[in-house]
Amino acid sequence: MAMSLSLLFRRCCPKNRQALHRLFSTASTSESSDDADIVISGGGMVGASMACALAYSDSFADKRIVLLEAAPDRGDFHLPKRYSNRTCALSPSTAGLLSSFGAWEEIEMMRSQPVRRMQVWDSCSDSMIAFSQEDMTEPLAWIVENDVILGAIMRRLRQAPNPVDIRFETSAKSFVIPHVSESWEEKSKHPWVKVELGGEKSIYTRLLVGADGSKSAVRAAAKLHTVKWNYEQTAVVATLRLAEAIDNNVAWQRFLPTGPIALLPLSEEFSSLVWTTTPEDAKHLLKLPEESFVDAVNDAYWHERDKNALADKAVDGFSQLLNNIMPGGTAMKQLPPTVTGVEEKSRAAFPLELMHASHYVRPRVALIGDAAHRLHPLAGQGVNLGFGDVECLTRILEQAVAGGSDLGSLNHLLTYETKRQRHNLPVVATIDGLQRLYSTDFTPLVVARSLGLTAVNSLTMFKNLIIQRATA
Amino acid sequence: MFVCRTCRQTVQSATYVQWPSRACVTAGRGSFEQRRGVHNTRVQCQSLRTRSAEENDQKFQRPMAQTTIDEEEVKKFSNLAELWWDEAGEFEALHSMNELRVPLIRDALVNQRQQESEGTVRPSLPLEGFQILDVGSGGGILSEPLARLGALVVGVDASEENIKIAQAHVMHDPKVARNIKYIQATVEDLVGTEAEKFDAVVTSEVVEHVADVPTFVTACCQLVKPGGSIFLTTLNKTYLSYALGVVVAENLLRLVSPGTHDWNKFISPQDLQYILDQNDFSTRLLHGMMYNPLMKRWSWIKNTSVNYAIHAVKAT
């Protein structure tokens, strides 16, 4: 009976023999397997935007894209009245990417706050630097809550012309990657990546994109080596109420020896706090009553205890010199707003580390976002690098499809890796360097950095270059 | 030292696949078969190929549609396919040449179609509806991208091993597999039945390995429809091509294994164009190509002294 069945199929569908072979060979086992072109593991901001970018791309109109997200489906996003304490500073190039699939317009309809000026100063001396775009009309960045970003992207994803298979409450139990995983040698040796979802379900995919955060399971399965550094610092976040409603479009950051404290504008009355400090200090801050916490924040911005006399003198003399050479070139120091309250239950803390994967790709595997690199938040670049990865990978995959190559082919994945590493590594290194430079109150270093900062502050062209690089 | 999977005896070095143990050979279960330069740690005897009658019966009882290759052969050729399809391996230059070849073929055919008719084309399948013959398809390195872009590709190779390798590789991807057919044959064999059947014939890096170039090219030309295209990429016969294409590429940089190319078989574009002209083809494009061994990428250059590509169109 079985023999005649196979004969029947042979006669009826000679062309589909190969397709049938696969169908029957999987039916004979108890597993049910699925086929996909790209599986994106991790539905956070970066993973979801990757899915969205592919869904809105013409080249992927007939390709099957699957997005795996461990969290449950929260349905359509409703903007809560209270501000969330996790925010991001989005650069103009990220805004460009998000508007390419309509998510930026959604964000603007919800809430975002443009930053037109950034002032960074030192607690150990009077040196400071202020960034602003030339004519003050283009914002340097936008401060948007993480929930708002994700909500906007998910909304656009659900309306995409090429529907993406979004699987909530699904996370891969394991990955079988060709030539890498031990289990690959023993089993079927299928040339594609097998994403095992548990319960005997699995997906075979041509390309696996790892967007699952700094503790990426994809990265671990692909056995990619990383360079890690624990900063021994914790970031405390909170939503703060300002003393009075102001035209809140300036981002303030003061470097203390324990770490930078940043105030990012959310609205006329509220700002988001990101205070990087030692783990003990962070624990202490979280336990403080509201009033004391507010006092601590104000004190951090206004105190002069760390002032180094020598550095002060040096900076004074230097700025006078600069004023004589380039009169009017230096930006003036403004005073940050005073904080009067903190939203209840908005205080939280998370540890910081530096992480960078030495390779972003393997055959049929690519990492994007925090899975590939994790930075110190002092320059607000982390998520922007992730979105940059999304844009680069999407463009490269579109080119690969136009050239008829296999999506998982190493040739174009290596191009993606080279391009992104060339962009990311200098940023990672610079931010790490800045963090180390400013985490000390050793006098020679303080004098050196203060003079350096003052010098850069007066070089408008150089500052514009930095802005260009940071917003690209 | 490696272990024969059948009789568990240790066997010779891993540069030979299918090197059965002495015991198996003595028992008449196989012979020594050599494969050049293939590194494979999974050594097995030929014995696995010959199965007993019971095993064959058992196989028929499973409800499985029969394919043109049997499972054991598939496994063997899948291992060899890894050599052809290792993008950083011996065929690295051929894989990266796709960056030039595929857009050349794709754009030429799409332009040709646009000039003829106004038909709607799906943007992700620009070559849908075209029938392409890939002569000397090898492991299918060029056939698969063309099939993925929607073309119906017939891949022809004189070596049975190559055909089986190509089939074993494409088997896993049903979307591509349904657009490709691999045939073990020479071009001359096809002329009898398939004359003037193909929209395009592609012979990439084949002409320099052929004994009688005029006959080969003429046969290829006869398989093209009137108004169709022929694409050839090969090496020029110049001092520079000897220096770079043979000495440097094979002996110094080891981009291809030594002995791959015989300079005497190289042909200049003028000679090739003459043969094409005699077959009623007019040259549309003649362009040089250059391989950068540091960046491992090909690029188009004006100079045709080493590698070049020709696109010619048959008179209607």
Automatic annotation (TrEMBL), chain A:
It is an enzyme of class 1 (oxidoreductase). Residues 36-424 form the FAD-binding domain. It is found in: Mitochondrion inner membrane. Keywords: FAD, Flavoprotein, Membrane, Mitochondrion, Mitochondrion inner membrane, Monooxygenase, Oxidoreductase, Transit peptide, Ubiquinone biosynthesis. Its main location: mitochondrion. GO terms for cellular component: extrinsic component of mitochondrial inner membrane. It comes from the Eukaryota. This is Ubiquinone biosynthesis monooxygenase COQ6, mitochondrial. It comes from Littorina saxatilis.
Automatic annotation (TrEMBL), chain B:
Pathway: Cofactor biosynthesis; ubiquinone biosynthesis. S-adenosyl-L-methionine binds at residues 101, 136, 157, 204. This is Ubiquinone biosynthesis O-methyltransferase, mitochondrial. The lineage of its organism: Eukaryota, Metazoa, Spiralia, Lophotrochozoa, Mollusca. One of its GO terms (cellular component) is extrinsic component of mitochondrial inner membrane. GO terms for biological process: methylation. It comes from Littorina saxatilis. It is an enzyme of class 2 (transferase). Its cofactor is Mg(2+). It is found in: Mitochondrion inner membrane. Belongs to the class I-like SAM-binding methyltransferase superfamily. UbiG/COQ3 family. Mg(2+) binds at residues 205, 208-209. Component of a multi-subunit COQ enzyme complex. GO terms for molecular function: 3-demethylubiquinol 3-O-methyltransferase activity; metal ion binding; polyprenyldihydroxybenzoate methyltransferase activity. It catalyses: a 3-demethylubiquinone + S-adenosyl-L-methionine = a ubiquinone + S-adenosyl-L-homocysteine; a 3,4-dihydroxy-5-(all-trans-polyprenyl)benzoate + S-adenosyl-L-methionine = a 4-hydroxy-3-methoxy-5-(all-trans-polyprenyl)benzoate + S-adenosyl-L-homocysteine + H(+); a 3-demethylubiquinol + S-adenosyl-L-methionine = a ubiquinol + S-adenosyl-L-homocysteine + H(+). Residues 133-231 form the Methyltransferase type domain.
